[in-house]
């Protein structure tokens, strides 16, 4: 197990990708130091640790090279701390299957489309993920079966923003008629200690959302 102060996580509380890493660390019962970053004025530590992308999350582990990209960080901590709450499936084919759907989750971007188009994309994605959940869970509580696994973390990190978006837009991402199993899954995830302690509050998300909203420039003519 990691010693106190050995692991540091650079991030912002409102980032779902940072939340993803926090969930993984919590599941592993890994003690870590959270270093909050202001992405409007990035620290020298962040710029040095991730000079190409200059974004969070970044995991710093003792004298190892800095680690970036949330899913890669999850795989790393699963490999170096294998004895507590294994995250990745053991079978290579199942691991590859999980990685495929994790990539699908991360490449959905309805916010870049019009409102109606976004709703259609969300509905279709929910249908697909419902089928994946039924296939992977084998009738149990999580994608990982009895315990939270790789796909649970990959999707579960979005639950803070999903809840916020549902409240803001009065539109359900996971709907009883389209994805009833995912509705139940989301409830279990939100109540799990490792997850609820990682997800940002509504107020934190509202503050972040207000900051990133596009401000229409004044007319000049």
Structure description:
The protein has 221 residues and is α+β, with helices and mostly antiparallel strands. It has two domains: 7-80, Glutaredoxin, CATH 3.40.30; 92-205, Up-down Bundle (Glutathione S-transferase Yfyf (Class Pi), Chain A, domain 2), CATH 1.20.1050. It is built from ten helices and four strands. A four-stranded mixed sheet has the order 2-1-3-4, covered by helices on one side. Residues 214-221 have low confidence and may be disordered. Residues 66-218 form the GST C-terminal domain. Residues 5-85 form the GST N-terminal domain. This is glutathione transferase.
Write the layout of secondary structure elements.
Blueprint (H helix, E strand, L loop, with lengths): L6 E5 L4 H12 L5 E4 L7 H6 L8 E4 L5 E2 L1 H11 L11 H15 L8 H23 L12 H7 L2 H11 L10 H12 L1 H4 L5 H11 L9
Parallel strand pairs: 1-2
Antiparallel strand pairs: 1-3, 3-4
Helix pairs in contact: 1-3, 4-6
Short description:
Its EC number is 2.5.1.18. This protein is α+β, with helices and mostly antiparallel strands and 221 residues long. It has helices at residues 16-27, 44-49, 70-80, 92-106, 115-137, 150-156, 159-169, 180-191, 193-196, 202-212, and strands at residues 7-11, 33-36, 58-61, 67-68.
């Amino acid at each position: 197990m990691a010693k106190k102060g050995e692991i540091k996580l650079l991030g912002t509380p409102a980032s779902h990708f940072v939340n993803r890493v926090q969930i993984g660390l919590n599941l592993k019962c890994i003690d870590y130091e959270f270093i909050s970053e202001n992405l409007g004025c990035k620290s020298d530590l962040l710029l040095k640790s991730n000079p190409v992308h200059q974004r969070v999350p970044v995991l710093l582990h003792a004298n190892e090279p800095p680690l970036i990209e949330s899913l890669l960080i999850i795989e790393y901590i699963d490999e170096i701390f294998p004895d507590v709450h294994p995250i990745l499936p053991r079978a290579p084919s199942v691991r590859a299957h999980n990685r495929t759907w994790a990539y699908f989750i991360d490449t959905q971007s309805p916010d870049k489309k019009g409102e109606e188009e976004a709703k259609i994309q969300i509905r279709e994605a929910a249908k697909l993920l419902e089928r994946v959940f039924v296939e992977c869970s084998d009738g149990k509580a999580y994608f990982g079966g009895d315990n939270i696994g790789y796909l649970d973390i990959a999707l579960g990190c979005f639950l803070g923003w999903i809840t916020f978006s549902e409240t803001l837009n009065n539109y359900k991402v996971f709907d009883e008629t389209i994805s009833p199993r995912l509705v139940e899954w989301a409830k279990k995830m939100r109540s799990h200690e490792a997850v609820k302690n990682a997800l940002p509050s509504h107020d934190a998300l509202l503050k972040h959302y207000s900051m990133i909203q596009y401000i229409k420039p004044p007319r000049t003519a």
